[in-house]
Amino acid sequence: MKLYRKNDFPLHRVREHLETGPVVLVSSTFMGETNIMTMAWHMMMEFTPALFASIISNQNHSFELIRKARECVINVPTVDMIDTVVRIGNSTGGDIDKFEKFGLTKAPAAIVKAPLIGECYASFECRLADGSKIDKYNMFIWEVVKAHVSPSPKRPKTIHYKGNGEFRIAGETISRRRMFRPEIL
Question: Could you tell me the pTM of the whole model?
Fold first, then answer.
């Protein structure tokens, strides 16, 4: 193992190293209005049930749609969608229909009303499990109620935001499965 020499690092840039989850596209619908937002602030919280937390700014057009609907779809794009992901994040659903503007396909969900995004390799239908942190932290805690994942690619190249308009690309997998006890896999 390598021993690293470390320097002091600006606190406002910590996200470059800790925010490792993939950038996702959140689709929502409420009272006939459908929207998509780009989101990087989220985390898994539990395996069973599958609980997922996200932070959505109350200044975001999707915030009230999602808050009122109490459901959404978390869609995971791959690197081939990077420009579309950025453009979605730089526009507001208050001005445009993002599905139409960016040529994305609305696919029907099995349980929730919000659509899946057909061009994303994975889509997770979510219902609000706990809204107690919304007012204070803009934190939504979701239960994933249905998961849709394409069998290909096996190792998708997902987009991970570092801040300052820069991204990391993930996709390579290293297995250490044989080192784990079966009960903690």
Answer: 0.91
